[in-house]
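ARCHIVE CARD
Drawer: 12
Card no.: 0347
Subject: one protein chain, sequence and derived structure
Cross-reference: see card 0346
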Amino acid sequence: MTRAISLHDVSKAYARGVRVVDRLSLDIAPGEFLVLLGPSGCGKSTVLRMIAGLEEIDEGELRLDGEYANDLAPSGRDMAMVFQNFALYPSMTGRDNIGFPLRIESPGEDPGPRVDATARMLGIEDLLDRYPSQLSGGERQRVAMGRAIARHPSAFLMDEPLSNLDAKLRNRLRAEMSRLTRELGVTTVYVTHDQAEAMSLGDRVAVLRGGVLQQVGTPRSVYALPRNVFVAAFIGTPRINLLQGLVRAPLDGAMTIGLGRQALRLPEPLSADHRLLRVQQGREVIVGLRSEAVRIAKPAAARPGEVPISGLVEHMEFQGHEVLVHFNTGSRPAVVPELEAPRPSPRRPRRRAREGFSVLGRLRERAGALRAGPVVVLEHPADADPAPAPPEGRMPGDLVVRTTPDIRLRHGMQVPLLVDIAHLFVFDQHGERICPSPARLPDLDE
């Protein structure tokens, strides 16, 4: 039997009243594979432990199959947990480790048949008589999974079970885990900070930051329509290009988004999403471009919806099946403070207006204070001329483009580029997506 799991405005706080989970609401359907994704320290493991009953819920409700379960003991929830560190008993063989919870649940029954069936499912029959110290990391994780599967639980709770393994083994076990959970049809909640795992495993992905749910949806929809700049930057390899832009929408001319020394001219007639950008006239925004939204081609080869710019080759990363080319387009990368931090910075106290402060300045301050707490805020360098340092983990250049390995480029070459405006993201200075419209639903059947 599998079960539905529902969290309603669930919160958890530790010392000094800091909330590690803040009013989280999430519904997990029976048989669904849901991934909790976020940076380390964002509260995803705490959510998992509250579902398991290993952490008390300070506020809100946990419901299992519609029944209130906040006070239900862990043993009464019929869930199996797989931990990051395997958690095997060192004095027991693989057979005894798998069979141990079965002997506790049904003391009078022989666990042998279920242990053998589980071992065949996982392909670990030859490991049953070995001790954990005689097993590799991948073999120990298979035994740990076998211990959870043998119980036939109503839900699997997995806390980064593959993070201690090497990349090759992690990919193989990821495929096996996906196959097994679908064959068993058991509700699975999987915690990870690895977006590749989240995108390949989950039916849906729930992105957390600072204990707050940022977005939940299918992997494809979260990638295609990120709700804010944090989600956009956290999901996707290579990281999305984030550039400072300036919206220009004259009444008697074409609408453009200035990117430093170049500009993106929005095709006419304007789409519904682009018409909404008129209210941003004269304002700075954050422009997001995935690496596949830009291609190397001459303006004459432009398809409908593509606009030309150019870039200077600064660096090339050969990946085997593709090449990532870093261009300098004269744009200014959006400097987004603490974008990768597990929680937003605390809001600064509002400063009192200085004597002589202009009325316009006070109105701007008041308008800013009325907004919700920002996800991110653009920093404005004091000197506008020098190019800012690239975000941490990024090579020099302001635009990364994905292309085929047969491309022939060299450092310092000026290259024509075409930007697909249909895949253009625009975020306001607080990181919220304004284009495509937040009300738009992704049409993934096109």
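Annotation on reverse: Residues 124 and 142 are 7 Å apart (CA to CA). The chain has two domains: 5-229, 230-343+394-435.
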